């Protein structure tokens, strides 16, 4: 126990400041009203769905949960069920074998909901494109609010995309 | 080192394949196909990969055009690829699953993709075909028409039912309750004890092998680097080896060292993440916080020096697209020392933590005998007494210069897989330092000649999870005709089903994490 405490004290606080929202990542006009977003933005629950990724994006979403990004300090939390989620964070390309599961998860997420597509493949199919087995971009299957490019995007870019989706108004850079 | 490898006791027309390890290929008849498998099994060799291809367009004049099925075996002498031509009129080949358990799913996938069947196999259920393409069509056939596919209709899957008093099923997935790749697990349990686990995978099948046909040989490395993101270096390196083998070129010495540096950095990054997650799955959240912090430090330096946190697209056919100078070498060495000190401290904490050890010991056990029978490979196999590691079994530059110590444990439980990770992590930190100071000066890339149609190459790399194999064949105009990519998860997924038998359901995440297998690398 003493070793654990010593290690915690030695490590100290490593959290870094969050990025600002970037409205250029937005795919469509926000459907959710400002007031709701102000509330959501203070306690956002996210269900992550891998709809066909190479798992590179998952590594970076995992990294987003490390102490440097202090996600829970921003009120953001990953949850186990889409029924508990305000936002789906979807990586792609959407494999045809995952298309139905993704739709079910989206339908199970209560309205009003947000969808953030993560990574080059989630944005446009990436290196895998559209094929007999791939539907390509997430927006080919469910409506997407914000798309984050990058292969994979760094955790800070993913966080920027999440904060953009919950930013109060188009053109405004306010985070939660 | 011998130029070719061959199966002892069987005279076959071996054609050598250029590469770091001894590799050769032979075209055989049906009797030799089975005999080769039997002899490999007898001498303790293993099945590395099994795949098929459509050759019918190559012999238009023949009355009976052919498919081909390939089995790649690892024996002490090296990698032996056995190729059997399968006539269109009778598209089947002798089953290998009786001799090599991992063949079962590979044969099912091979049928889904190419449409040639293993004759005598007991399990012929579809594996990768969930309904995205209809029965009777096969995406890797040359005449497959993707433009006229009917709507995606999901098919039912015939799970094995466990009957008996008090037995019930827990279906899990494809979407799991975490940030994980998708797949379906069907548990049959009594109380909280697992009687049987049946996996159904293939959810992230995105047509990778077909997609390769749209690229030229020098271009394919980007797709190879995305077969399984956590093994991007291993796959890109294996692909680069295969391309160089096919083109008849060798990368410059400096490139070999830098590739090895990246491979070891990938190993360190994944082991750090896994050790944190393993602690977390046994309720020690402190471990996750600490190891994920170290991993973040680690990948940030990768991004700073090599331009990518996961090192994607840095290894290219002909060399590397990255370099470092003396000041950066110093930073690589410094970081490696700093992380090592922290890892040693965290290892002490793991070892002294009674709750953690209680969860780790005897959980998810795979005995050495079971590991041998089922063909377990890579890191998990080394935790079950199987001492294979390509870096020491067929050493090439820079391993010949800096050496590497194999980490082997025999108890085969979660604790053993944790220990192997700690050992390999510390060894890789040493290797990173040795490479940072030992990398010879010189160019990082060499020019690539044009690919000759029909030329074949192979690459074989010990990634952090296990051995990765890429076999590449060139077509017309420098394009890829066929590229088979193999992840060790193919071998290890079925073993996970055995590892959980008799354990309690709440230990499944821990056992699963201790293997940490790739879905994407398997589903392709």
What do these coordinates show?
The complex is a heterodimer of chains A (176) and B (524). Chain A has helices at residues 2-11, 34-40, 56-64, 96-108, 119-124, 155-165; strands at 44-50, 76-78, 87-91, 114-118, 146-148. With 176 residues, chain A is α/β, with parallel strands linked by helices. Chain A has one domain: Rossmann fold. Chain A has a 5-stranded parallel sheet, sandwiched between helices. In chain A, helix 3 links the parallel strand 1 and strand 2 (76-78). Residues 169-176 of chain A have low confidence and may be disordered. Chain B is built from 17 helices and 15 strands. The relative contact order of chain B is 0.14. In chain B, 39% of the residues lie in helices and 17% in strands. The mean pLDDT of chain B is 94. By secondary structure, chain B is an alpha+beta fold. Classes of the chains: A alpha/beta (176), B alpha+beta (524). The interface between A and B is large, with 49 and 57 residues.
């Amino acid at each position: 126990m003493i070793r654990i405490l010593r290690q915690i004290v030695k490590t100290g606080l490593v959290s870094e400041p969050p990025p600002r929202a970037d409205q250029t990542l937005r795919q469509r006009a926000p459907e959710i009203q400002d007031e709701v977003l102000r509330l959501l933005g203070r306690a956002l629950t996210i269900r992550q769905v891998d709809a066909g990724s190479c798992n590179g994006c998952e590594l970076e979403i995992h990294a987003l949960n490390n102490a440097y990004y202090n996600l829970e300090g921003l009120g953001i939390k990953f949850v186990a069920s889409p029924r508990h989620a305000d936002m789906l964070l979807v990586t792609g390309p959407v494999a045809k074998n995952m298309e139905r599961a993704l739709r079910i998860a989206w339908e199970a997420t209560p309205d009003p909901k947000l969808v953030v597509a993560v990574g080059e493949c989630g944005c446009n199919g990436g290196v895998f494109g559209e094929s007999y087995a791939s539907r390509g971009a997430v927006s080919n299957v469910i409506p997407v609010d914000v798309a984050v490019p990058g292969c994979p995007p760094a955790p800070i870019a993913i966080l920027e995309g999440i904060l953009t989706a919950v930013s109060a108004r188009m053109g405004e850079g306010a985070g939660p | 080192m011998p130029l070719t490898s061959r199966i002892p006791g069987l005279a076959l027309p071996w054609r050598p394949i250029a590469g770091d390890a001894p590799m050769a290929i032979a075209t055989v008849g049906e009797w030799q196909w089975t005999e080769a498998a039997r002899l490999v099994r007898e001498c303790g060799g293993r099945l590395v990969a099994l795949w098929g291809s459509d050759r019918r367009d190559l012999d238009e004049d023949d009355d009976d055009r052919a498919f081909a099925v390939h089995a790649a075996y690892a024996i002490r002498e090296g990698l032996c690829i056995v190729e059997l031509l399968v006539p269109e009129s009778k598209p089947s080949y002798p089953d290998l699953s009786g001799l090599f358990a991992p063949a079962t799913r590979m044969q099912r996938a091979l049928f889904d993709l190419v449409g040639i069947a293993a004759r005598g196999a007991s399990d012929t259920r579809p594996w990768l075909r969930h309904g995205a393409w209809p029965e009777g069509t096969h995406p890797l056939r040359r005449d497959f028409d993707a433009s006229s596919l009917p709507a995606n209709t999901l098919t039912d899957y015939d799970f094995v039912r466990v009957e008996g008093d008090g037995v019930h099923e827990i279906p899990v997935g494809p979407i799991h309750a975490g940030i994980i790749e998708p797949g379906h697990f069907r548990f049959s349990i009594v109380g909280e004890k697992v009687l049987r686990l049946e996996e159904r995978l293939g959810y992230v099948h995105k047509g990778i092998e077909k997609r390769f046909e749209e690229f030229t040989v020098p271009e394919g490395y980007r797709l190879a680097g995305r077969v399984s993101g956590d093994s991007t270096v291993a796959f890109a390196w294996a692909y680069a080896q295969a391309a160089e083998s096919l083109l008849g070129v060798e990368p410059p010495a400096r490139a070999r060292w830098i590739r090895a540096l990246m491979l070891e950095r990938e190993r360190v990054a994944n082991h750090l993440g896994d050790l944190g997650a393993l602690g977390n799955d046994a309720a020690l959240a402190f471990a996750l916080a600490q190891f994920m912090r170290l991993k973040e430090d680690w990948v940030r330096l990768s991004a700073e020096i090599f331009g990518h946190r996961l090192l994607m697209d840095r290894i290219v056919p002909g060399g590397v697209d990255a370099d470092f100078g003396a000041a950066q070498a110093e930073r690589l060495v410094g970081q490696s020392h700093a992380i090592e000190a922290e890892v040693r401290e965290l290892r002490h904490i793991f070892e002294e933590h009674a709750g953690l050890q209680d969860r780790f010991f005897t959980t998810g056990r795979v005995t050495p005998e079971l590991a041998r029978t089922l063909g377990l490979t890579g890191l998990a196999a080394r935790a079950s007494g199987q001492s294979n590691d390509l870096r020491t079994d067929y050493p090439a530059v820079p391993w010949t210069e800096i050496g590497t110590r194999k980490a082997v444990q025999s108890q085969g439980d979660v604790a053993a897989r944790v220990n192997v990770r700690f050992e390999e992590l510390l060894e890789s930190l040493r290797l990173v330092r040795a490479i940072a100071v030992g990398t010879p000066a010189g160019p990082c890339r060499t020019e690539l000649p044009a690919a000759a149609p029909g030329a074949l190459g192979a690459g074989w790399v010990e990634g952090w999870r296990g051995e990765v194999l890429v076999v590449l064949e060139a077509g017309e105009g420098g394009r890829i005709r066929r590229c088979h990519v193999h992840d060790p998860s193919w071998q290890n997924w079925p073993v996970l089903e055995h590892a959980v038998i008799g354990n309690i359901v709440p230990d499944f995440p821990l056992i699963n994490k201790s293997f940490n297998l790739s879905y994407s690398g398997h589903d392709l």
